[in-house]
Write a structure and sequence with these properties.
about 450 residues, alpha/beta, Rossmann fold, eight-stranded mixed beta sheet, 17 helices, 16 strands, globular, binds nicotinamide-adenine-dinucleotide
Length: about 450
């Protein structure tokens, strides 16, 4: 039986590998896999620093009201310049659960949608300004493109896309329709990340040379829990895909600190990964050696490590592991010519002339206070009381709405969204070629040097 399973697994992996290579418009070139960039259509321009007309009350449609979506609905109840207009989920009980939250806040009920294709109708509704997407990954890009093509702004959970084709479809739709498309990368809004972004931008760390980020989070129990993720989508993704499936939490904050597509750009990556061990070991122990969970194929290696080199000669290291028994870790390391910061396993800062040692706790605290990000000064206390991963989720929503209310460019633009998400297909490609370097497309198509830093407009 085990022999048959192993043959099935090998055949399956070979099939996945050839399917991925067929899907990718890429070719081997001087030891690097180059990726074709589609030309920008005539008359279309980039959407860097896009400003749209201010919206006094942002009318929001929520699509996907599971673990993540219901929390977003709750947070939006604390944003008075919004109207929660639509609630959509294929599970009617989840729509009701969100309606109950509105009731608790004395907010009038939203329109309800429960059919699987209702998102198309919602995107076409004239009285919606923002489509907010918290479904599982397969619908992120299709809904984003549909919303943009209907003239809506769109905010989408991470990752916004899982293929390069989806990345380009999103860029084209955002540029053609001149609408905002933000990926909801909440980790950029965590308190330490914002303070250290401020430090980097003010030169405290000198020139940043190297940075690290990660998503290391033991999700084994939740992945096997048939009531947690809808249709067990997360386990299914792990069953069929290789590479870093969830790169954006680690990459987002360091990409902003390193001015990616704002004076520097990611040129290429290499990815290596372990084989798969953790899910099978866990399933054998929990469900038995001969259980379907233990015999199932999981394509996804436990730990993947990706190295990126930038145009300006800097490096970034990104890891992903959601199946090993170890403490939660997003890394967040910034290393510059004058100093070093790290968030995990404990927050620490080391500065010249004594960067051999971390600063004392008191020195660290006073530095974090001195460099508190202006956005945290503005909304940090409210964010802590509303919550959402300690407050960062509320800061993210607050900023999204603040920028839409005031006609400002968003903190995260469409290029951030696709650059960070493109690691999903690009790491798969590198892995399937034994860690070969893979080019990272310049999704701005030549405009990566137009800006010099990320600005969180106030
Ligand atoms: N940023 C973060 O910190 C963070 C944390 C957790 C999850 N996420 C992301 O949020 C997303 C959702 O994760 P989750 O844990 O809430 O998963 P979930 O399974 O609890 O929620 C997904 C929801 O989408 C609904 N859905 C599926 N198909 C639909 C359709 N056609 N129309 C309408 N609704 C549909 C499901 O019924 C389910 O309620 C994922 O993309 C995940 O990566 C982000």
């Amino acid at each position: 039986m085990n022999n048959i399973m192993s043959k099935v697994r090998k055949a399956f992996n070979a099939l996945m590998c050839s399917a991925l290579i067929t899907l990718c418009s890429c070719e081997h070139n001087n030891g690097i896999i180059s990726i074709k960039t589609p030309p920008r259509p005539n008359g279309q321009t980039d959407v860097l620093e896009l400003r749209c007309e201010p919206i006094d009350t942002v009318r929001v449609a929520f699509i996907g009201l599971g673990n993540r979506g219901v929390m977003a609905v709750d947070r939006f109840c604390y944003l008075p310049t919004t109207k929660i207009a639509v609630l959509c989920d294929v599970q009617p009980a989840y729509v009701q659960r969100s309606q109950d939250i509105l009731k608790e806040h004395n907010i009038s009920p939203a329109l309800e949608f429960t059919q699987k294709d209702d998102w198309r109708k919602i995107c076409a509704m004239p009285d919606i300004d923002l489509v907010y997407v918290c479904t599982d990954w397969v619908l992120h890009a299709p809904i984003a493109v549909e919303a943009l093509n209907n003239g809506k702004h769109v905010a989408v959970e991470v990752p916004i896309a899982t293929t390069l084709d989806e990345c380009w479809q999103i860029v084209e739709a955002a540029e053609r329709n001149r609408r905002h498309c933000m990926m909801l990368e909440n980790c950029n809004y965590d308190f330490f990340e914002l303070a250290t972004l401020n430090m980097a931008q003010k030169g405290l760390l000198g020139e940043l040379v190297h940075a690290e980020g990660a998503y290391i989070h033991d999700l084994r129990e939740l992945s096997f829990d048939s009531t947690y993720y809808w249709n067990m989508w997360r386990l299914k993704e792990n069953s069929i895909k290789k590479g870093n499936l969830y790169p954006t939490h680690g990459l987002g904050p360091i990409a902003h600190a390193m001015n990616i597509h704002r004076g520097d750009k990611m040129n290429y990556l290499v990815c290596v990964a372990t084989d798969q061990f953790g899910l099978t070991a866990y399933a054998k122990e929990k469900y038995g050696e001969q259980s379907s969970q233990a015999l199932q194929n999981y394509a996804h290696g436990d730990m993947s490590t990706t190295l990126i080199r930038t145009e300006k000669g800097k490096t970034m290291l990104i890891q992903h592991d959601v199946v090993s028994p170890r403490p939660y870790d997003r890394h967040h390391i910034l290393s510059g010519t004058k100093g070093f910061v790290q968030k995990y396993p404990i927050e620490g800062i080391a500065l010249e002339p004594n960067a051999h040692e971390f600063l004392s706790e008191n020195q660290l605290d006073s530095l974090l206070q001195e460099y508190e990000h202006p956005i945290v000064t503005e909304v940090g206390e409210q964010a802590k009381s509303v919550g959402g991963h300690g407050g960062m989720d509320f800061i993210m929503d607050y900023r999204l709405i603040y920028c839409l209310n005031n006609g400002l460019p968003l903190d995260q633009d469409v290029y951030d969204a696709v650059e960070w998400s493109s690691l999903v297909p690009l790491t798969q490609l590198s892995l399937l070629h034994n860690g070969m370097p893979v080019e990272i497309p310049d999704f701005t198509r030549g405009a990566w040097n137009k800006l010099s830093t990320v600005t969180y407009y106030q």
